[in-house]
Amino acid sequence: MMRLYFLMTLKSESFGHFCDVDNTCEHLRFVHNFGKDSVLATAISLGDSTSDSVRLDGYIQRTIYPRGRLAYVFTTSYKGEPAILKLSWTPMDRMPEGAVYDLLLKAGVKGIPRVHDSGLLKQGFFGLRLEYLILEHCGSSIAEHLPPNVENIVRGTMRCLSQARAKGDILHRDTSLGNVMVGSSGKVKVIDWGYAKVVDDGDGDDNNTMASRKARISATAIKWKYNSHLVMANEDNHDPLTGTPLHMSIPVLAGAKVRGLADDIESLFYVILDVLAGVQVARDAMACAFKTADSITQAMVRAGCLSSKASFLRFFGISSCSDKLRRLLCDLRQFLFENSDGYIGSDLIADAETERGVAVGLLKPYVDQQTTGLLLVKETFTPKKSAKQVESLKQPDAAPGSSLIQSPGLVHISEEKNDLILSIKELGKRPAPAESDEELSGDQPGPSRNKPRQS
Q: Where does the Protein kinase domain lie (predicted)?
């Protein structure tokens, strides 16, 4: 969108009647052009409400990252219920968020918002599409609910992320502070699936499972007017670029060209640490693990900060923590960063396929039995396609007349990181001091620096 700034200077008539909204518009009604089963739709501005219109009550201010997508989010009501309206410009060669929700719903994934309505308002506009989603209002950010409900939040989020991966072949890839919501009833919902991707690793499945998966993916692509082969290849190539930097996993920060469920779980781990750090003023803590720097430096610093079980919380700015909560964080740390060879934080920088999750048994108190089994699913990483291979992909399920744009090239990681890996490995090999049974001492809680958002 930054390259198309001139669009802001054009009159609305230049775009056609895809969303005729002016300053006096209070209600929108979305009409599907060819029946409810069609995603092609038109937005009609209304002066008064109707039974199926949405009221534009308030625009939700969000931080905008120049990552090829632009979303406008409004609080609204739909058929008498609180709801969220999301209007998104997305490239034609990337995954529509509405298609992701379709796949999640077909797979029976729990912990996602209810979709009231969705569709496409504009297709092939300078290589972009405009889609809309009307979702249930899922509550507020977890920043307002931690730490009292931390176990419930971890249980619900991990169940949703693991079911999405195991049942729907989908990785969220942007688990962050504003994307995990808690409703008034305490139900946890994972939202904002706009950066998700479909994982194509069915080579080890039986023929019936593979055929069912391919049929489901192809049918969704036909419905949402995109080329599944091109989109899946481009999403693979965006693995090193996708996510919220503050909550990215160590392998992703280090430029890993492969991603798995463990990266989403690691992001959740950082989200919890971020919230806890935000509600206390830790004068004696060295919160270097959350200091922003270039990605590879941040990955190395974070790997060093996590090497000691006894002191890693201090490096994330947490000086005061209950025994119960500290036990949960230590168990998550061991699950993510230790295997039979010991601490693997630095190994994850050099090799994203380093085995993780050996200590999955530690998570049994926090997740149900089914989720424990899903966390044991092994990732099978496929080689990424070159730009030339992506460009030459066949288009059996592409929408006729679709405009496709090339994705940006991959980010290559400098070789200089290898000079620092050995020192971090040595740090991780040192024996950790004995863990004290006493709580970490610290200051009184202060105002949170985290601002919740709904996406």
A: 4-367
Residue 27 CA from chain centroid, whole number? 30
DSSP code for 184: T
267/376 same-domain check: yes
Q: Which amino acid is at 328?
A: L
- In our burial notation (b when 16+ CB lie closer than 10 A, e otherwise), range 144-160 reads ebbbebbeebbbbbbbb
Model pTM score: 0.79
The HSE-up count of residue 153 (CA atoms within 13 Å, CB side) is 26
SS3 39: coil
CA nearest neighbour of 161 among 267, 255, 258: 267
Residue 4 in any domain: the answer is: no
Name the 3-class secondary structure at 366: coil
Number of domains in the chain: 2
The predicted-structure confidence for 145-197, as pLDDT tens digits, reads as follows: 877 788 889 989 999 999 999 889 999 999 998 899 999 888 999 999 999 99
Angle at 309 between CA 435 and CA 248, to 5 degrees: 155
Helices (H), 198-322: 207-224, 228-237, 250-253, 261-278, 295-305, 312-315
Domain that holds residue 89: 16-136
Report the C-alpha gap between 332 and 382 in whole angstroms: 27
Cα–Cα dist 66/84, whole Å: 23
Q: 103 with 168: CB under 8 angstroms? A: yes
